[in-house]
Amino acid sequence: MNVVEVAAGLICREGRYLIARRKPGAHLAGLWEFPGGKREVDESLTECLQRELREELGVRINLPIPYRVVRHDYPEKTVELHFFHCAIEEGEASPIDCEEIRWVRPEEFINFEFPPADRAIVEALRCRTEGRRGAP
C-alpha cells in the first residue's frame, strides 16, 4: 500500500487553533482537521503546506516549524501527516476549499470530531495547554 504524505498547519492565534471542516464528498467528509493537504511530486513539505494553505484558506504563512509526524493506516490508504507550527503572515483565513473554519481553544477540541490520524495531535495540544494552566 502506498503512503500519502500530507502537510498540516497548526496555526495558533491568541490561544486558539484554526481548524477546518472537510467538504462533503471528500475522504472523511464532515470531520474537522488542521488545514493542509497532500504533497505533490518534487515539492517539499514546507512548500506543500504553504501552497495548500494559500489554496484552502487564502493565506500566506511564515516558515513552518516541524512539530510531529503521525502515520496512520486507513483501510483504503496509509497517510503520513507532517504537522507544523506556523502563523499567518498575510491575508485573513476564509473557507475557500473546505466546508467551514473555526478558531478553537484546545480545551474545546472535544466538541469536534477529528479523523483518527489527528487525534494524537489533538490530545498533545490539549495536554500542553492544561499543563500550562496548572503551572504556578
Give the structure's gist in a few sentences.
By secondary structure, the chain is α+β, with helices and mostly antiparallel strands. It has helices spanning about 45-55, 120-135, and strands at about 5-15, 15-20, 30-35, 35-40, 60, 65-75, 80-85, 90, 100-105. It is built from 2 helices and 9 strands; from the N terminus they run E-E-E-E-H-E-E-E-E-E-H.
Notable traits:
single chain, 136 residues, alpha+beta, Nucleoside Triphosphate Pyrophosphohydrolase, 7-stranded mixed beta sheet, two-stranded antiparallel ribbon, 9 strands, 21% helix, globular
Quote the distance from N terminus to C terminus.
48 Å
Total beta strand runs: 9
As residue ranges, the low-confidence spans are: none
- Give the assembly state of these chains: single chain
Number of domains: 1
CATH topology: Nucleoside Triphosphate Pyrophosphohydrolase
- Mean pLDDT, all residues: 91
Please write the string of helix (H) and strand (E) elements: EEEEHEEEEEH
What radius of gyration results from the CA coordinates? 14 Å
Can you say what the CATH homologous superfamily is? Answer: Nucleoside Triphosphate Pyrophosphohydrolase
Alpha-beta classification: alpha+beta
- The percent of residues in helical segments reads 10-25%
- Main sheet attributes: strand count, strand direction, barrel closure: 7 strands, mixed
Give the name of the CATH architecture: Alpha-Beta Complex
Strand content: 35-45%
> So what's the CATH class?
Alpha Beta
Shape designation: globular
